[in-house]
Amino acid sequence: MELVYTAEYVENFDGGIKEGGEYRGDLSMFIELDTAKASWWKNGEFFIHIQEQHGDGITERYVGDLQGVSNIDADDFLQISEFWYTHYFMDERLWLKLGKQEANADFAYVENGGEFINSSAGFSPSIPLTSYHDQDFGAVLGIDVNKQLGFKMGAYQAHPNGSRSLGNTIEKLYGPMWMMEPTIHYSLN
Q1: Alpha-carbon gap, residue 132 to 51, rounded angstroms
Q2: Which positions ≥6 away from 187 have C-beta within 8 Å?
Q3: Is 164's pLDDT higher than 50?
Q4: How far is residue 37's CA from residue 89's CA, in Å, rounded to a whole number?
Q5: Where are the domains positioned within the chain?
Q6: Residue range 81-100: mean pLDDT, rounded
Q7: What does the alpha-carbon distance between residue 52 and residue 72 come to, in Å, rounded to a whole number?
Q8: Other C-beta atoms lying within 10 Å of the C-beta of residue 119
Q9: Whole-number pLDDT of residue 175
Q10: How many Cβ atoms sit within 10 Å of the Cβ of residue 179?
């Protein structure tokens, strides 16, 4: 289990809609369970992400940016953002993940994008993924052909908004949205 608090104060000094700033915070609890370590079965992993956000962002009221000024800019919420199960096969070269998940974690992911202030480096503004803060149900199948090349295929509920609660997701089934992405692994060594 890991508890992470992210806080930021962002200010618009000039231009945009108006000058000024706001504080925004994110409290996230990550729980991972390895099924082998729990003495249940081998090659399985459960994951839960519980998330609470508070404060105000400056994107809409101060800046007017269409992409989001911050990586944690959203309306206030308390939710189970993710809960999924992954099972690994063939010495972890093949895997299947099922559940409510962050599509951006497996597709169009920029490893160090979260380090930038503007959210565009962390996720693509032009790909309508079921992503933060509206993660949704899906299935992802991944295979590593060798140490350098792999492929991932995913199917998600296609509506990228309104999935914060289990009840809302079940009542409003959309989809599917299919994705496929090659994975190229490289090393500087």
Answers
A1: 11
A2: none
A3: no
A4: 17
A5: 2-184
A6: 96
A7: 11
A8: 20
A9: 65
A10: 18
Tokens of 118: 């503007």
Q: What one-letter code names the amino acid at 68?
A: G
> What's the rounded Cα separation, in Å, for the pair 22 and 117?
14
pLDDT tens, residue by residue, 3-29: 999 999 989 898 889 999 999 999 999
CB 104 within 8 A of CB 113: no
pTM of the full structure: 0.82
Q: Which backbone phi and psi does 28 adopt, to 5 degrees?
A: -125, 135
Max CA-CA distance within the chain? 58
DSSP assignment of the chain equals: -EEEEEEEEEEE-SSSS--EEEEEEEEEEEEEEETTTTTS-TTEEEEEEEEEEEE--SIIIII--SS-SSTT-S--EEEEEEEEEEEEETTTTEEEEEEEE-HHHHSS--TTGGGSSSGGGTS-TTS--S-TT--EEEEEEEEESSSSEEEEEEEE-S--SS-SSHHHHHHS----EEEEEEEE-----
Cα–Cα distance, 64 to 172 (Å, whole number): 30
- Separation of alpha carbons 68 and 123, rounded Å: 10
| Contact by Cβ (8 Å): 177, 153 | no
